[in-house]
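[job 4471] stage=fold_predict status=RUNNING
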Amino acid sequence: MKKILPYLCISAIIFLIPLLFLYIGFISPARSGSSSPFVRMTVCTVLAFLLTALITRYIHPVTGLAGLDSAWLNLGFTIAILLALFVEFVTFGNSTVAPYIAELADRYKDGAGESFYSCIKYVFMGGQLLAAVRTFIHSAFLGLLKAIMKHAD
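[job 4471] inference complete, writing structure tokens
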């Protein structure tokens, strides 16, 4: 029970990282009416995926929360990422971001910009979903190992 507070704190960080990049890469340009946020959206999408994936993968030995007990930490990561995905889904469908992305896709209709601006939100959310699936599978695997070791004694 003494590890619950670190689990919650680290999971909260994992929840907030993609939302920070969502704001920087998508919400802020939509509110300001930026004419071409290609670089900003691309960098924020890549950084959100990389930071989420790397932190959920390599935080265990750094914090001392490694071992079979990290199954709970991975489950917390999965829940935090899925909550962030829900917020991202709602944000991409709201009245500020959705028309802005549709307008960008229409503006660059003849080139690769149309497919980029049409698909970038799915790439952003897909990267987070990939990290959530990986952490869930890792959590399930560690939970299974823990159960096998418990019954082996």
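[job 4471] summary: The mean pLDDT is 87.
[job 4471] exit 0
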